Amino acid sequence: MNTPRPLRPLARVTSPPHVALCGALVVALLATPARSAQRLVTAGGDITEIVFALGAGDRVVAADTSSVYPATAAALPKVGYQRQLPAEGILAMAPDLVIVSDEAGPPAALAQLRDAGVRVEVIAADDSPDGASAKVRHVAALLDRNAAGETLIADMQAGLAQARADRAADSSAPRVLFVYARGAGTLMIAGRNTPADAMIGLAGGRNALADVEGFKPLTAEAVVAAQPDAVLMLARGVESLGGADAIWAQPGLAETPAGTRRRLIVMDDLYLLGFGPRLGDAARDLGRQLHPEISATR
Fold first, then answer.
1. What are the phi and psi torsion angles at 294 (to 5°)?
2. How far apart are CA 105 and CA 107, in angstroms?
3. Nearest alpha-carbon partner for 253 in 290, 212, 221, 292
4. Rounded to 5 degrees, what are φ and ψ at 156?
5. CA 243 to chain centroid
6. Which residue has the higher pLDDT, 170 or 73?
7. How many helices (H) and strands (E) does the chain have?
8. Which helix (H) or strand (E) holds 166?
9. For the chain, what percent of residues have pLDDT higher than 70?
10. CB–CB of 229/259 below 8 Å?
11. How far apart are CA 83 and CA 104, in angstroms?
C-alpha cells in the first residue's frame, strides 16, 4: 500500500495530550503484525508440501487426501479430496486459516467456510518455474516465513540450473510420451499446455504429443504416430495397471521405439507434477533418466 504524502503544515500546532496519545496508539496498532495463524487446514499436495518445507508443518491440523508428502503430512487427519472438500469436516478442525490450491472446491464449500468466519486463501497454480516461485512466496507471506520462502526458491533455482547444465552437456532431446493411468479404464496421454509437457521441456526432452492440446484418450493410432523414445508415468498410475510389465500391453505402446527398448520412466506423482519446492530436483532427476549418459558422469 502506498503511504500518502504528508501535507506540509502552515504553522506548528500543538495537539492536546489525549489526541497525541490516541494517535500514538493507532500508529502502534498499525505497526504490529497480525498474529500468524496457528491452526491450518491445507488442500492440494503442493500447498501442503510448501507449508511443511517452510517449517510450519506443526501448525497443520488436517489436510486433503492429495497431501502425501512429507510422511508427517500423509499421517495427518484428512478432510477429503481437494475438489470435493466438506465444509463441515473442515470447520470441525477449528482452523483459523485454510490454504487451498486453485483446484479446490466446490465453490459452495469455500463460501460456507468464509461465511462461518474462516479465512480462506486460494493459491494460484502456474506450471512453470516462475509459477512455482510465486506459490512459495504467497504461502510464505501468509505464514510470516518470507525468509524461509526465499531460501526454498534459491534451492529450487539451483536444481533448475543444474538441469540446464545437464541439457547443455547433451543436446539430444528424446521424444517422451506421458501416459496418465488410473486403472485400465482410464488411460490418457498428455499434449502441450499440461504439467507433464512443462516438465518434459525442463528436463531436456520433447513431448511426443506436442501437436495436441491438453489430454486425450490413449489410442493405438495416437501412440504409434507419436513414436516416443521413452514413456513417462506416475508411480500410482503404474501401480493401478498392475506393474511395469502391464504397460506394454496397453494399445500401441509395444509398437513404439520405447516399447522395443522397454524404456519406461516412473516418478512419484507429486514430485513430478507438483511444481513445488522440489521442482528443480525433479527436473534434474527426470533429465538424467532421459539422458543416462549424463547421470553416469555426474
1. -70, -45
2. 5
3. 221
4. -65, -45
5. 26
6. 73
7. 14, 10
8. helix 146-169
9. 86
10. no
11. 5
